[in-house]
Amino acid sequence: DTSGILLVAKNNESLIFFQKQFKNREIEKKYTTLATGIVKEDQGTIKTLIGRSSQDPRKQKTYSLEETNKTGKREAITEYKVLKRFAAYTLLEVNIKTGRKHQIRCHLASIHHPIAGDKVYGFKDSPLPKGLTRQFLHASYIKVQLPSGEFKELTYDLPEDLKGVLETLDL
Fold this sequence. Notes:
Order of helices and strands: EHEEEEEHEEH
Structural class: alpha+beta
Strand content: 25-35%
Number of strands: 8
């Protein structure tokens, strides 16, 4: 249900080249998301361990960095910046420093601001914006080094369905 930029390698050499950059946290990735509720801070960092949830195998769960049993848990860092506040939602730019499964969805839910429309991490009483038929999560930016040595920055605007949702929200 996430829209936006997708990086695809055309051959094994490129795949290994890109995998190394991801592993070394050299690729910059930004997402645009609509969080449920009003995020008070204009910017922030969420830094936890993330591992599989014992209650629901489909989900990831956050754990304290001081967790004693670190088996199956890895450090995850998510930075966010408020782009716009609405009456019941906050539009965020999210920069992930690590690339854990469901990291943004899990982290925002852990601070009580799940992504609008997220059926897995959203709360039972989470409101749903008019016209939203999927989770409001969009990969909007990537900066990556190509095998040629050149750096490539790509941006991708919100798709029409998500732009339409924003137009229906009250300030």
